[in-house]
Specification:
alpha+beta; six-stranded antiparallel sheet; 11 strands
Length: 190
């Protein structure tokens, strides 16, 4: 009888657990995408995402991403990541320019407000912001940052000292953008 009473008591508690920020209620992954890296922009976005969270996994604070198979990307790119110095130019990202999946890692594009709303319903988490792409002949620079969104309930409770990003240089070789191993990497970490 005690075991039955315990199970009856525990069952509702198990069903009331908080959903993970990448639960299907929030992470609306587009499985039908037919992404083709057929433009410079698409190739560069693919290249930096592939390096940052699939092959090298070297974006600052990568290890702190809770769900490494489902990652949010802000729908705005910024001309500067150090926005506290002066206001950066903002550009909307065309969802067609971003792959929905690279190998087993899936991506979901959301606005800053949508990302904040998901955090408020779940918890704090990291998401990516793509920097503006600057192409100069056969050389290109693109940035990517890994940023925290803090839920309303946690705002002001603690300071987050992680996250960060980098700006990488790519060279166009035989029609493909390849990471330039000889170029300096501009990186930062909180």
């Amino acid at each position: 009888m005690r075991k039955i009473a315990f199970l009856i008591f525990m069952f509702p508690m198990l069903n009331c657990s908080k959903k993970l920020y990448t639960h299907s209620d929030f992470f609306d992954y587009n499985r039908t995408s037919d992404f083709k890296a057929d433009t410079d922009t698409k190739q560069l976005i693919y290249a930096i995402l592939e390096r940052a969270v699939v092959s090298k996994k070297d974006i600052p604070s990568y290890k702190l991403i809770k769900d490494k198979m489902n990652i949010y990307i802000n729908n705005v790119s910024y001309s500067k990541f150090h926005y506290w110095l002066d206001k950066p130019q903002e550009n909307l990202i065309d969802p067609k320019d971003v792959p929905t999946q690279i190998e087993k890692v899936r991506f979901c594009i959301k606005s800053k407000l949508e990302i904040q709303a998901i955090s408020d319903k779940t918890d704090d988490f990291l998401y990516l912001i793509i920097g503006n792409i600057v192409i100069n002949n056969e050389t290109a620079k693109i940035g990517l940052s890994n940023n925290w969104v803090v839920s309303k309930k946690n705002k002001g409770k603690y300071a987050i000292m992680s996250g960060g990003g980098y700006i990488l240089t790519f060279k166009k070789i035989n029609g493909n953008w390849i990471f330039d191993k000889n170029a300096l990497i501009n990186s930062w970490q909180s």
